[in-house]
Queue: 2 jobs
Job 1
Amino acid sequence: MNGTIEVQAVPLHRDDEGSRMGMWLFLFTELILFGGMFIIYAVYRFSHPAEFHLAAQELDTSVGMINTIILLTSSMTMAMAITAIQKKDKILSMALVSATLVLAFAFLVNKFFEWSTKFSHGIYPGSTELMGKPPGEVLYFGLYFVMTGLHALHVMIGMGLLAVNLAFIKRGIVTWDKSVKLETAGLYWHLVDLIWIFLFPLFYLIH
Amino acid sequence: MAFETAAVQEPDYLHVRPKHTGIGAWLLTTDHKRIGLMYLYTILTFFACGVFFGFMLRLELLTPGRTVIDPQTYNSFFTLHGVIMIFLVVIPAVPSIFGNFFLPIMIGAKDVFFPRLNLLSWYLYVIGGTLALVSLFLPGGPVDTGWTFYIPYSVRTTTNVVPAISAVFILGFSSILTGVNFITTIHRMRAPGMTWFRMPLFPWSLYATAWVQVLATPIIGITLLLVGIERIFKVGIFDPALGGDPILYQHLFWTYSHPAVYIILLPAMGVISEVIPVFARRTIFGYKFIAYSSIAIAFFGSLVWGHHMFTAGMSDSSMFIFSFLSFLVSIPSAIKVFNWTATLYKGSIALEVPLLYALAFVIHFSIGGFTGLMIGALSIDIHLQDTAFIVGHFHYVMFGGTGFGIFAAAHYWLPKMFGRMYNKKTAIVAFAHIVIGFNLTYFPMFVMGYLGMPRRYYDYLPQFQIYHVISTVGSWILVAGLIMMVVNLIRGMISGPRVGPDPWGGTTLEWTVPTPPPVENFADVPVVTTGAYDYSRYAETTEKEVVL
């Protein structure tokens, strides 16, 4: 409390830094939301290592890898869309956001077929096939469906955000000097990507 | 001429002609002050429901065996009493009503950073609250798990668990959005010269609370979501029949629900830190210590959840660590109590109603805190766990602490919010009823709990009846006091005498603006040059009368 008056941010009509901060705080909550599930995964993996090992072999690594590549590419197109709008290239930015949307959709289609295959093998919550398996495998598939399902839900929410931003760019609400809405949507999209980066090895790669 | 002053003065937030008319002037508003009032009305409604359930529980326990309600109804009532009082009343009350209204004004801002998000929080709150009440009447019957939703009963019972946990999930969302909003507001919107250490202590406590809201709430969100998924889709996660671990559920539940205690308590402590210096006419003692202790409580409070599970099955070493950490939390809490007391020392105390509630807070919180230390000790906890002692301890902190903090805030700030004063004599009579009723209701619980009365039981042995009778009679006095207080406040706010901008002689920024505050709060953005509690003007004119 020394006498100098440190000039703080005067309430402005626009404060991009603050908007980004709000989004970061929200992303913390998302991380902790998934963090809770990662803890459950860790605990059960520790208590049922052999059964987790066995169950993980049911998953198709190549499908998982294709989806990883799709999402990583979509993160790249997202980042490029932001740079494009900041360089005043509205058309390119819209094309890149659309590309991100297409990739996100491809991810979901892939996921749909992956889940359907599991279902056709009789592996779904409450199925007689699954209930006949040892507890560790029941837990593994329970977590698999819940965690990838919740992640897919986040992909859909992200797609909604991107679609809204596409309209914003078209209507001139998001422009080269007012790009913070697209930037925060981008932050969210990278988070969706980041969570997948952890889900992929935990379910598909660790055997 | 009156006409001229009216033309010059900006209309206050209650009388301004808004963008939307009719009911939309409230339901579509983004004014933090109007949103604060909407929270006030909705929270008051839910509080009335919670009091009703609590009242019925006490009435049922008046005699052994059936008194007024059957055992299943009793189970539902204590569940709903807990869910409503915790998630709909004490968690949101101070931040959402008084934080929304006064945080921007106290830091010299015109609104919160995300005004529309603020309105969304209110809608989520209302949806969640409605869902909790609707679950009472849906087929299946009201939820009877207790507010903790412990596994495996919560996946086996046929009652409406899913609506109730959906309600808590949605309310958590509302709480998170409020937290995000407050942190961003405090970081980005402080007026020029409003440095961190010139901020009043109420914003400080809201800041610490907001971090806990943001970082802890998602855990209960995901945990209860998983319980819901487990119930609906039969996915194996916590249910031991499907290989799950019920103890893991308890860990995750308390990982949020213990920090939630500090979400509940910290803002009320902030209120007390505002009230005490104003009515002691002294700068608060140990400003920085109080500010830092809020952060310390938020930090340590997030690490102690295991003390809810000492008898649930845990290794000795983790029990030892959790017990030790629980003791540590009491240090920053005690720092606050000592500083409040030291602020009163040699102050020129004006024993107004808000200060009475604040003093009751300090005493009740000390009792609640000490009993908390007792049950934080491993050996004593084994004797006292799951007894009425726990209920007593909990209510001394939640009600005797936060509840009284809310009442202090109401008597302190409502005149500012509505521009009118309540009847002070009636307020003191109501206060006396509430304090006596409160202590009669909850103190016997320590005694009977120590003697072995279990909590949540519908029936009891005849030897406990005397304590139950005292407690139930206390609850009648308490409810009478609450009704008196609420009626007095409502009457005062409708037709009480008008008050000026600074009825209490406060020094923080909210007392510098007109009463009720104008829509934009400040005609000009204030420039802050001193700390929050500058009472040097009282040192010069000690005999100065505070004019209403």
Note: The two ends of chain A are 58 Å apart (CA to CA).
Job 2
Amino acid sequence: MQADLAQAILDPAISCPKVADDSGGRFNVYRNNYLITLRNALRTTFPAIERLVGADFFAALANAFVERHPPRSPIMAHYGDAFPAFLDQFAPLAEFPYLADVARLEYARVQAYHAADGAGFELRDAAAATAALDRPSALHPSVSIIASAFPAHAIWLAQSGDDDLAQTQWLAETALVWRHGATEIVEVRPIDDRELALLLHAADGGCLSALLASCPDEQHAASLITSFLKLASDGVLMPVHPPFDHGDT
Amino acid sequence: MTPPLPPIGPAGLPLGVGIGLKREHCHALLADPSPVDFVEVHAENFMSDGGPNLALLDRIAESWPLSLHGVALSLGGEAPLDRAHLLRLRRLIERVQPASFSEHLAWSSHDGTYFNDLLPVAYDTATLQRVISHVDEAQDFLGRQLLLENPSTYVELATSTWHEAEFLAEIARKTGCGLLLDLNNLYISSHNHGWAIDDWLCRFPLDSVREIHLAGHERITDEAGHPLLIDSHGDAVSAPIYDLLAQVTARGGRLPVLIERDNNVPPLSELLMEVEAARACITAIASAEAA
């Protein structure tokens, strides 16, 4: 019986199953609840997309998405993982191919907030910083890297009210999304190819010293070290193994 | 002078008045937790892997007795309980040791789809057996008693043969679970289906109730032109719900009372006035009984 009720909620073209007393069209309350609460969940996760396409269009877009992608998990913070790819395929938005990457960025921000913790590098002094260069590293669990053929980060920033898109050059952009440790601060910033290469190397468990060995010159090496230390102190990178305590034994 | 703390009820929640904690009120209430006796949060909003959300829950649990309220276990579902979801619940319960854990007589998942809503179950014997076995399984897995909440419904199912109150009573009797009496849900369902509330309450085991919910509802007109009450949680608790609270308190004694507000969330000061109104309602009855 629940199969019939479920089907009737998912597909408004199917009339209310006989098992429910639908006098007065009351079964529609369940259909509406389903659509409205999921639309609200999408609005919460993708506010910049809603501003970019407008509230009315977003409502229709959300309805179309919900119809194609009903939630599989009860955790609403994860609902919408398929929304960026859906935007890519949604014919009426074909003229706005950057939207999917803006959505990827927004989804990554929500996931960063809920992501697991990870102990970062401790960079108390120069000796600790030098030691960090030899440690295999990993990306913090909150990290996402959004590579876009469009200035997705600049578009998102303009929609968030922090920037003026008129100054933006229409170029490919890669955005880094991460959370500062256990704090509430989720950051988004563009990264260049050098930082991207460094992050991908770190994501493979590589340590910086291996990358430095292949550097063509000292200037290049120095800038790599600066980038590494910035990413480490911002909590983007963390050591793979917790520091081993040699203690006094 | 600090007012005396209310005594603790049988389920671990204080016999006072609490609120469903909204994010916009967290900061102010954590700075001064004293206006409410306990708080309730939805478990599914705190199923993060780590980070600030869990840290916030830790702070909440340190500040008040906590009622952890689940909305997605689908105890009334035809499908087996979702073990992954039970495990997420168990982790949260182990982490914050809530005074109470409650769920709904409803289903919310079918065939892998999650409906993000509390859908109505048929009050028939097959469903009864299934809910009993799901409640047993959940209580075993979570290692504690759960409280089962009466639903608000908009349609009745044709295969129902049991009275809702007796259906809930039988589940409580067979599983040892406690009951969460949502007076707004009772009011809504009774109105929508033409039930007599007095009759419902007479069939309902008030001595198994461990928590009471109050909330606001919305009145709309259905397609046949009949008034229909919607469980919107978007308005202040209305006078008939306070009347029910007075009635139930007079019959069953003081219980932990929680005010839910999920939509059109007002400033904290407004919610705290409702907390005071609920306190006044309970106290008036308790004083009348003592006199």
Note: The radius of gyration of chain B is 18 Å.
